[in-house]
Amino acid sequence: MTYVNSTSANQHAAAADAPTIYVCVTCRPPGEPDSPVRPGEILAAATSRAAAGTEVQVRRMRCLGNCTRGASAAMRANGSWTYVFGGLDASSADALIEGARMLARAADGILPWRGRPTPLKRGLIARVPPIGFEEVDE
Ligand code: FES
């Protein structure tokens, strides 16, 4: 028999619904020599600090496939589109948190352009639809 810890299950469900930012910790400026602490690591730390006290989850990961335009991060909220950003640095941390919260509030799952923080406008690399999305021709 399998027992499920409902508190743990509820916490996992809440975490799955939370706006989540994935920060690539291995990003470094293309063409520049490696450094002991990579810019991606610095961005991840700054984003984690900026998320403190909010509902936003910050996950560290290695490589979002945007290496030539790093530092990179992606975000999504429950059922939303997924956004990938590049050209970020530690000063972008607050913008990432603000953007993730905007995305979580967006009823259509699309990050609004109006009011979107500047680093998330100029740094947009791609947006990817949620599973099950179908374009509607009008
Ligand atoms: S190393 Fe950061 S996107 Fe590839």
Describe the protein's architecture and organization:
With 138 residues, the chain is an alpha+beta fold. It has a single domain (18-128), classed as Glutaredoxin, CATH 3.40.30. The chain has helices at residues 6-17, 39-51, 93-105, 118-122, and strands spanning 20-24, 57-61, 73-76, 82-85, 124-128. The protein has a five-stranded mixed sheet. α2 crosses α3 (93-105). It is globular and about 50 Å long. The protein starts with 5 loop residues before the first helix and ends in a 10-residue tail after the last strand. The model is unreliable at 1-6 (pLDDT under 50). The chain binds FE2/S2 (inorganic) cluster (FES). Residues 24, 26-27, 40, 63-67, 70, 72 line the site of FE2/S2 (inorganic) cluster.
Please indicate the count of domains.
1
Question: Helical element count?
Answer: 4
Tell me the CATH architecture: 3-Layer(aba) Sandwich
Shape field: globular
Return the average pLDDT rounded to an integer: 89
Secondary-structure-based class equals alpha+beta
- DSSP, total strands: 5
Low-confidence regions: 1-6
CATH fold naming = Glutaredoxin
